[in-house]
Write a structure and sequence with these properties.
The protein has one domain (2-157): Gcn5-related N-acetyltransferase (GNAT) (Aminopeptidase), CATH 3.40.630.30. It is 25% helix and 35% strand. The chain has helices at residues 2-5, 16-26, 37-44, 92-102, 119-127; strands at residues 7-10, 50-57, 62-71, 75-83, 109-115, 131-142, 145-154. The protein binds coenzyme A.
Amino acid sequence: MISQNFQLLSLACNDAKDLATLSEEAFLTKTDPPWSEASFQTLLAKPTTFIGWKGVAPPQNILAGFLLVQNGGPEVEILKIAVAPCFQRQGLATRLLKHGLGNFPPDVTFWLEVQESNAPALRLYSSFGFRKQHERKNYYQSKGETQTAVVLVREPCHIRPPVKGAKRAKIL
Ligand SMILES: CC(C)(COP(=O)(O)OP(=O)(O)OC[C@H]1O[C@@H](n2cnc3c(N)ncnc32)[C@H](O)[C@@H]1OP(=O)(O)O)[C@@H](O)C(=O)NCCC(=O)NCCS
């Protein structure tokens, strides 16, 4: 299984081209547009504000996935996560998120926006305790299409042990 051999490394400005290529592949069918090399370069030039990890698949060290998070105090935004199509469904996004979220103190609230039709991402985030907070209608606009964005939040209380008999909330 690839996730056993997956290596997590910090992102740097010189990764921008590979990140843009992977982003284009992964977001090909999404209304949420991929980011350009220039966008990644701008983000990665701000090391105090943005943190990210790339996952590479040895032995060729191909860029297999990445996670980009904006660290702005008690509320942390997950900006983007993507796994190259040929490496999807092998646990890589799960590893990226476990590592990424685990790097923050337990009292942090995480949030993000995701397309309402993005079932894989909604399921992934649900498994990490994210819940729907509200919607932004017609938020994504690309190729003549519009899509609603769902704002997902993971409150710090997520790390408390579950209450016995409590029902699990669904976001799907
Ligand atoms: C969303 C994405 C990052 C998931 O990456 P991944 O490495 O394939 O995810 P994992 O293998 O860790 O899967 C974890 C869970 O997510 C859900 N999931 C992932 N892909 C799925 C799919 N195609 N269909 C349904 N559920 C899916 C499942 O619940 C899965 O757990 P399971 O395999 O035990 O059922 C990947 O599909 C992707 O890059 N998509 C395009 C970019 C994107 O939409 N990013 C999110 C918005 S920023």
